[in-house]
Design brief:
Blueprint: E1 8-14, H1 19-28, E2 32-34, E3 37-44, E4 47-54, E5 59-64, H2 73-76, E6 81-84, E7 86-87, E8 90-91, E9 93-94, H3 96-109, E10 124-127, E11 136-142, E12 148-154, E13 157-163, E14 168-170
GO biological process, one term: DNA-templated transcription elongation
Protein name: Transcriptional antiterminator RfaH
Pfam families: NusG (PF02357)
Amino acid sequence: MSVEMARNWFLLTSKPHKDEVAEFQLRNQGYEVYRPLAKRLRTQRGKVITKIESLFPRYMFIHLDDGVNDNWAPIRSTTGISSFVRFGTEAARVPDALVTALKEQETLFGERAIDLDRYHSGDKVIIAEGPFRGLEAIFQKYDGEERVIVLLEILHKQTKLALNPGHLYAA
């Protein structure tokens, strides 16, 4: 079996607010690391700014073999690294397909990235797809990663509706 075939992605945790430092330090040591990024809107000194942050704060992926050619010992003492995510005594392996899919999505979004704070409670939005397409609604909240809750006026009554956040745009 070739060395390339024996390589797997593993999941690491970093210390709080040290994702970027940990990634930089691991890359300096020659490790292949992947930390998915997302665009977030933040308020800083009264201004709304766009900031690029970890999609999964405190988590990153590292591509290693099972200890034949890669030395795992320096990883644990790298600045910013907390530990490997483990299931029992084994370091958590991540399927290649998952990491590939994350990289493709990140590339697909490009500069847009993933805006995790696009809508705020009370924002007016327009439904872009489905049976309510073109109707105006009021954004209420994010409900998990795949849904948002909006208020839609139907027959003079406000009704809560769960939608995919990709099916909305700002009014």
